[in-house]
Structure formats: C-alpha cells, structure tokens
Amino acid sequence: MVDAIEIWRAALDCVDMACRGCRGIGMRGMVRGSFLVFLLFTAGEASAETDFERKIREDSARHPGKSLVFLEVRVIEENGSKNPGCSTTKVVLGSDHVTLPITTQRTVGMLGFPVENGTYGGAALLAPGTYAVSYVNCSQYLNLKGDFARFRVGPDEIVNLGSLVIDFTRSPQFLQRTFTSRTKVEDLSEKAKASLTERSPVIFPKATKRYMTPNPATSGSQARAPEKRN
Length: 230
Known about the structure:
The chain is α+β, with helices and mostly antiparallel strands. 24% of the residues lie in helices and 39% in strands. The chain has five helices and twelve strands. It has helices at residues 2-18, 26-33, 35-42, 51-62, 190-199; strands at 67-77, 88-95, 102-108, 114-120, 122-126, 129-137, 143-153, 158-170, 178-186, 208-209, 213-214, 217-221. Strands 1, 5, 8, 9, 10 and 12 form a six-stranded mixed sheet that branches. The chain has a six-stranded antiparallel sheet with strand order 4-3-2-6-7-11. A hairpin with a 5-residue loop joins strand 3 and strand 4 (114-120). The longest helix has 17 residues, at 2-18.
C-alpha cells in the first residue's frame, strides 16, 4: 500500500509538470479529487466501506485538494479534581479559515440519554492553510474561547493531529466568565484510536502523525463560537 501511495504522489508531480500554466482546476484537480477514493479502492475494501468513509469519498470528490485530519480534544478542570461534564465535545478552528463545529466526542444524545454507539475522536476535510483551535464546547453550559493550539495542512494530506488536552480553571469572579488553562498535545487516547479505526478502517491507519502545537498557557473567555465565514 505504501508503494501505491508513492506511485500516486509521483503521478501528481507529473501532472504538475505537464499542466504548468494551465487554467482552472484541470487535470490535477480531478486527480487530487479522487486521492482518497484511490486509497479506498487500492485497499480492496471499497465495496465494504463504512458510512464515514463513504462520506469522505463523496466530500473529497466535491472538494479536490482538501486534506483529511483526525483529532481529539479532552477537557479537564483543575487537574482533574472537578468534572466539567464533557459528554459531547465540539471544536471550531479559526485562523486562515473558520470551520463549522467538529465533533470530537459524543457519548450522550438529546435529553442527556447515552447514545448507543458513542464516538471518540473526530475528523474533518480542510482546505490547505494554517488553523488554530480557537473554540471548544464540551457541554451545554461550558464554552471556552482562546488560542489553544495551531497546526498547518497542505493539499491532499491525511494527518493525525493528536489529542489536545485542556486543563482549565475558571475565574473566581463568576460574572467575568473568564478562565486560564494549561494545554498539551498527546497521542490519541485508546478510546479515540479504537473509535476512529472502527469508523475508518481503511483511511485512519494511513494518517501521518503530525501533532498540533499547543499554546502552553492560555487565557480566554466563556463565549459563543465564532460564525463561519466563506
């Protein structure tokens, strides 16, 4: 499989050389748009693809050149001495682009009932650029806005960004709605690895480990997420 990927990337380089000066997306765009589809078919498992990988295949065909990232965000309070109640965790990425919320954990559904198939770890197709983890929502009542970590992706990459751990402390003055935190990036948790492997048995194992860069000390506010910009 590694040889097949290298052959594919070499083909992209050849298309680059042949299409210099071409206008529009052209051949390279079409080739790029089917990169993840190629991974599925060369693995011989496209007929048994999961719903998750089918969606990735369809989305990547509609948005050539985007990259697929896997990530996890874990929120703890005061070094784990308090439980912030993060049953469903969502993040919004900012900087070059602002994304829609990305769910990185979901173990409780509507009305607080546990979901039958809880998920750990999330994924998103991103345009090339620099991103910041700028907003985290981990329960109905807890929203954290700050500059927690950054990373960059190029075109047509599959990247494991690791697990961002945010250890936060609320301001003692409740009305200020501010917080301070310590952040670090670790390997994905065992639960996230198992959950992502189940949902993406073909693509997730191909991801290159290139972890986010954390902002070790972050302060911010408990505020709503920014609106997505085009």
